[in-house]
Amino acid sequence: MQLTVARIGRAHGLRGEVALDLRTDDPQARLAVGTVLPTDPADRGPLTVARTRTQQGRWYVQFAEVADRTAAEDLRGVSLVVDVADDEGEDDAWYPHELAGLRAEHVDGRLLGEITGLEHLPAQDVLVLREPDGSRTLVPFVRAIVPVVDVPGGRVLIDPPGGLLASDAQNLVISEETAGE
């Protein structure tokens, strides 16, 4: 299985350095100098990490195969990937392919829909929930809102604050209409 470690961002400077959008919790190990990383698309790599640095919390990398800014700009949007075994990983870490297709249930037992994916936003990751009416809702993937992820059981439990779900808005409209009668 291949997992994305980082996505290459904009070129930085004139000597081929690039900014990275990290997708790993362990960049020091995954991006160690000398590491050879396959790419997606595959024809853009593999790339060998020649130098890394951080500045204001942002990671910058220079690859041995990239000598100048023009070559660095051509890599923008390319993903750096690693091969991992299916059973490798942390107890409380899930990959997008494991989450897609899980049944989403409210903590009170109601069916909320199906998880269709995971998106990486600047502030945090969000689960993409398809509600029964087809509405798409982004659910912050934090323990306070998603207290249980049960991949073997095929479900996630969600404890959404009021107004998070699209169905909350529909229920509010119905309540207001019936309140006036």
From TrEMBL:
CC terms in the record's Gene Ontology section: cytoplasm; ribosome
Pfam families, alphabetized: PRC_RimM, RimM
Localization per Swiss-Prot or TrEMBL: Cytoplasm
Gene3D superfamilies cross-referenced by the UniProt entry: PRC-barrel domain (2.30.30.240), RimM (2.40.30.60)
Residue intervals of the Ribosome maturation factor RimM PRC barrel domain: 97-164
Principal subcellular localization: cytoplasm
Keyword annotations from UniProtKB, A to Z: Chaperone, Cytoplasm, Ribosome biogenesis, rRNA processing
Keyword field contains Hydrolase: no
GO annotation terms (biological process): ribosomal small subunit biogenesis; rRNA processing
Ranges of residues in domain RimM N-terminal: 5-84
Molecular-function annotations in GO: ribosome binding
SUPFAM superfamilies the UniProt entry points to: PRC-barrel domain, Translation proteins
Keyword Cytoplasm part of the UniProt annotation: yes
Alphabetized NCBIfam families for the sequence: 16S_RimM
Subunit and partners: Binds ribosomal protein uS19.
HAMAP family: Ribosome_mat_RimM
Summary of the function given for this chain in its UniProt record: An accessory protein needed during the final step in the assembly of 30S ribosomal subunit, possibly for assembly of the head region. Essential for efficient processing of 16S rRNA. May be needed both before and after RbfA during the maturation of 16S rRNA. It has affinity for free ribosomal 30S subunits but not for 70S ribosomes.
Family label: Belongs to the RimM family.
Domain remark from Swiss-Prot or TrEMBL: The PRC barrel domain binds ribosomal protein uS19.
Name of the protein: Ribosome maturation factor RimM
